[in-house]
């Protein structure tokens, strides 16, 4: 993980974040300026009105000042309202763009990286830190805009403070004035030092507290995932005790935080109050001496008070930014992840005869962080138009074999060839177009049926309907009120249709056929079904596939006995390869032992049927 200097981390993160919508920050600065300028405008006019009244000026002049105040505030309020609305709109665009960028990075990242536990934890941690504690870019935005707001206060205060200093110099600097100015400076310095010390301690306390509190457990109780178990096993009493314990922990944490806040804040407020007291004394002393007009008391005290408070807020914001650096480092580290997969440049040949021969040559693969290879020295030629069954126990390496075949992974050792070229030499985005795969954990999107079948934002209606019919979804399809435009699930549409697990499998199978890829793979998408039902679906699907190359994966041997050859995997190795009859003849082989071990269950399933 890349480590940068603290300032560099904040700068890089800010440039990335605000770069998602470059219009937002300028609009926000204008909004803040309209907000910050308002109190100074009112302080100045209030001072002028009071002075005019005290000096007994003409009514016209006084009413003119009042009119300027009213119209000025109206203009500032209207401008701020427009800018606030515009800033809100641009912020929404920025947030959407950031989420899109985060999703795009996730989807375009090497699949192998996404399955790396460390990278998965990095991505999940960024989301959790943002949602639960507001750390990361959320805090970055708040603190940067806090810096902008208070920086403007300081600059405007100093600008108007210069007017007061000119008046002091004209009236002559006296010893009381020097002492009071020194008192203001020292009290501000004390407030800053105390606030920085308090902010660091309080931030560390909250960071440690969040690590120990059981937020996720409290949030997950009673959810859909454990609701059934909770009721069937009468776990309500147990969960209530855990919840009560968690709530007590939270309460004690907040009480301690409040105690620390009171203890830490009192000296800061005392120092701040002292600086305000010195400010009042300085202005009143010179007003009494006639150096300042009567109305000057209002504006000069206001300027000094805003200045002292804003300086303290600036340092608070800087300290809060420092505490956000570890979270920003994680955020940047995720976007800095490189795509290490070799991209290749060869174009996949468009062949009407679908002659794509694939060969594994002494291929091994080890998952990131694992101690042993998941696939070990596999050598296998996949013939054109062949129906190959890949069977074996759970965890024997079947799915890993498919992920290497489709180049979701690259081998740790050995090579995979297609038509005499290493698959790495083919375009990395183009090579997967050769495959239609239905994985065991396939997903459908909460989008219209046509989008799910075509896996695209547009679809060919005739083609989609034909494949839905062929996989046995025709009757259900004809019941759908909007045809291919019928939304699946109710995530985004109340009229969405809920499909069963079996119906979802058929849609996934239709999606694989719709792609019309030369190589089709079924990676146990029917594992939840009984062996007889699974075998029936596999054989039916095989007749639809026709002359295309097909690979059928299962840990149930009866499902794939119709295939031309059967590859048997055991503990990551290809231990046997042959027809059903050939493998069964080898009574000491893994296939024969598994077949006879499973045969009793097949017989029982047939009796039930």
Please tag this protein with its features.
single chain; 609 residues; alpha/beta; Rossmann fold; six-stranded mixed sheet; four-stranded antiparallel sheet; 10 strands; elongated; disordered C terminus
Describe this structure in words.
- It contains 19 helices and ten strands.
- Helices cover 63% and strands 10% of the residues.
- 28% of the residues are buried.
- Strand 4 (413-418) and strand 5 (421-422) form a beta hairpin.
- Among the domains are: 1-170 and 321-337, no CATH class; 358-441 and 519-608, 3-Layer(aba) Sandwich (Rossmann fold), CATH 3.40.50; 445-498, no CATH class.
- By secondary structure, the chain is an alpha/beta fold.
- Helix 5 runs antiparallel to helix 11 (296-336).
- The strands form two sheets. A six-stranded mixed β-sheet has the order 6-7-8-3-9-10, with helices on both faces.
Radius of gyration: 36 Å
Silhouette: elongated
| Largest sheet data | 6 strands, mixed
Strand content: 5-15%
Helix-strand sequence: HHHHHHHHHHHEEEHEEEHHHHEHEEEHH
What spatial order of strands do you see in the largest sheet? 6-7-8-3-9-10
Provide mean pLDDT, rounded: 82
